[in-house]
């Protein structure tokens, strides 16, 4: 079996040497194959970047809308948490959602999707590490 393959491979190489057009065709086929792989990889990378930007825009829009009415409910943490749950059920990209109140160097959780974290104190620097907001 191995002898059969090597014999035919040699015959193929001899045929390619006799006909340079076959060699050019093989080179073009290899170039097209690798070009297809390269273009596909770039397309997938661009599509992922666009999807991440879209998710960030959607979350930013939800944050802008939410921040407009959240001030009215700071004293009503449970009602604010219920509204947050409604928003997160409509938008599957939201997995964690907290409203915090800054008090000096401490940050108090006013409302959250995780009801156990309501009322807990967090370090301000911890939140700045995960956000892109201006600390001022």
Overall, the morphology is rod-shaped
Overall pLDDT confidence: 79
Poorly predicted residue ranges = none
Structural class: mainly alpha
DSSP strand tally: 3
* Estimated helix fraction: 55-70%
H/E element string?
A: HHHEEEH
For the report, how would you describe the main beta sheet? 3 strands, antiparallel
Q: Termini, distance in Å?
A: 76 Å
- Strand arrangement, major sheet: 1-2-3
Labels describing this entry:
136 residues, mainly alpha, three-stranded antiparallel beta sheet, 4 helices, 65% helix, rod-shaped
How would you characterize this protein structure?
This protein is mostly helical and 136 residues long. It is 65% helix and 12% strand. It is built from four helices and three strands. The protein has helices at residues 2-18, 20-70, 77-90, 124-130, and strands spanning 98-103, 106-112, 121-123. It has a three-stranded antiparallel sheet. The chain is rod-shaped. The mean pLDDT is 79.
Summarize the entry for a quick read.
65% of the residues lie in helices and 12% in strands. It has 136 residues and is mainly alpha-helical.
Describe how the helices and strands are arranged.
Layout: H1 2-18, H2 20-70, H3 77-90, E1 98-103, E2 106-112, E3 121-123, H4 124-130
Helix pairs in contact: 1-2
């Amino acid at each position: 079996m191995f002898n059969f393959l090597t014999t035919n491979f040699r015959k193929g190489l001899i045929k390619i040497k006799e006909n340079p057009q076959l060699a050019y065709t093989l080179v073009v086929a290899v170039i097209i194959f690798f070009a297809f792989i390269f273009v596909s990889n770039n397309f997938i990378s661009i599509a992922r970047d666009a999807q991440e930007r879209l998710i960030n825009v959607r979350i930013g829009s939800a944050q802008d809308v939410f921040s407009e009415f959240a001030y009215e409910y700071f004293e009503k943490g449970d009602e604010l948490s219920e509204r947050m749950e409604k928003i997160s059920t409509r938008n599957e990209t939201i997995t964690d959602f907290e409203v915090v109140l800054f008090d000096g160097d401490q940050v108090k959780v006013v409302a959250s999707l995780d009801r156990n974290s309501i009322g807990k104190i967090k370090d301000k620097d911890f939140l700045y590490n995960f956000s892109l907001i201006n600390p001022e």
